[in-house]
Design a protein that fits this description.
The protein is of the alpha+beta class. Strands 2, 5, 7, 8, 10 and 12 form a 6-stranded antiparallel sheet that branches.
């Protein structure tokens, strides 16, 4: 008979989540405090916060077979990756499924990390392990990196959750990732800034601009003050934490075409750079600006199939560039 591990078992740890919701029937990781979700006051943002990009369900075991029972996954759900002792050993398409089976896992004691789908809601009902086996909690004591951004940080079209650009950078640089990429919803909300302020972090980054350009939610009068205000809120509890602000990557026609409030992406990059300069001039010596074109520039336009979002190859490239231009420079 298999060993049944209920969804709420305390030996299961959820890394990269802001909160974890337990109900009678399932457990779900949130990238927000789920009991205060109404305070974020935007249904589209709340929907994205329920998705688990960057979240890992982890435990120690010597099991060689693993069956997950979940609430039926969304038909558009991304895949789920399984890593043993940091090595990716399996990836499963879970769209529309209620069970995911991983046979032939490596022998012996190991840390299993299940990288949850970057797109779609994941709710665990139980885990079944083959007998004889043991189960123990895993604590991730590595340095913590919190990053905030748009759909280009959410990375829906990455090939799997370990291949989003934040996951690539975190895995290569050995960081404990919290990814706050919210597709379409990176608007420098004060409640998001408060959430980042209240989240443990050794390194911080924000990639801002593209959602604000697309919706015209901030203009020349309000964009730079909103950046400065968000940083100041976060600095209330992270006064010296290395903090990198990255402007928009290459955006095709948005480079020259003004949006409804008169912004182009070059104008917005200048505003992000000016905000960082202002903060540094007022004593914040550990905040830094990186031009998004260094992460993904016009030479990479062929990797933008919709002229906005990188494809899987583009996200992999972004991960390596972020590693070289940001993590290895400022996250040390």
């Amino acid at each position: 008979m298999p060993r049944i591990v209920p969804h709420h078992d305390e030996r299961l740890s959820w890394h990269g989540a802001i909160s974890v919701q337990h109900t009678e029937h399932w457990t779900q990781a949130w990238r927000a405090p789920h009991d205060k979700i109404g305070l974020f006051a935007c249904e589209s943002l709340q929907t994205r916060m329920a998705m688990s990009t960057g979240v890992r369900l982890a435990f120690r075991t010597n099991a060689t077979e693993l069956l997950l029972r979940i609430e039926k996954a969304d038909d558009e759900s991304s895949a789920l990756d399984l890593c043993c002792d940091g090595e990716l050993v399996a990836s499963a398409d879970i769209a529309g499924k209620e069970e995911i089976y991983f046979p032939n896992l490596p022998e012996g004691d190991k840390v299993i990390k299940l990288w949850l789908p970057q797109f779609g809601v994941f709710r665990l009902k139980e885990i079944q392990l083959n007998e004889p086996t043991h189960l123990a909690r895993f604590e991730d004591d590595r340095e913590r990196w919190v990053t905030y951004g748009s759909s280009i940080t959410h990375c829906r079209t990455a090939s799997s959750p370990t291949h989003t650009w934040p996951a690539i950078a975190a895995r290569e640089h050995d960081l404990n990732l919290t990814c706050l990429g919210f597709g379409g919803q990176c608007h420098l909300d004060p409640m998001v800034a408060r959430m980042i302020r209240d989240t443990p972090a050794d390194f911080l980054s924000m990639k801002v601009g593209i959602n604000i350009y697309g919706s015209g939610s901030l203009n020349e009068r309000t964009f730079r003050p909103a950046i400065i205000g968000a940083v100041q809120i976060i600095r209330e509890k992270h006064p010296q934490t290395p903090f990198v602000l990255v402007s928009s990557i290459f955006g095709a026609h948005r480079e020259t075409e003004e949006n409804k409030v008169g912004f182009t992406l070059p104008k917005m990059r200048a505003e992000v750079a000016a905000a960082v300069e202002t903060l540094r001039a007022h004593g914040d010596e550990n905040i830094h600006y990186v031009d998004g074109l260094e992460i993904f520039g016009p030479q990479d336009a062929h990797l933008l199939p919709d002229n906005l979002h990188p494809n899987a190859e583009g996200y992999a490239l972004m991960g390596q560039r972020f590693l070289e231009k940001v993590a290895r420079v400022y996250f040390v």
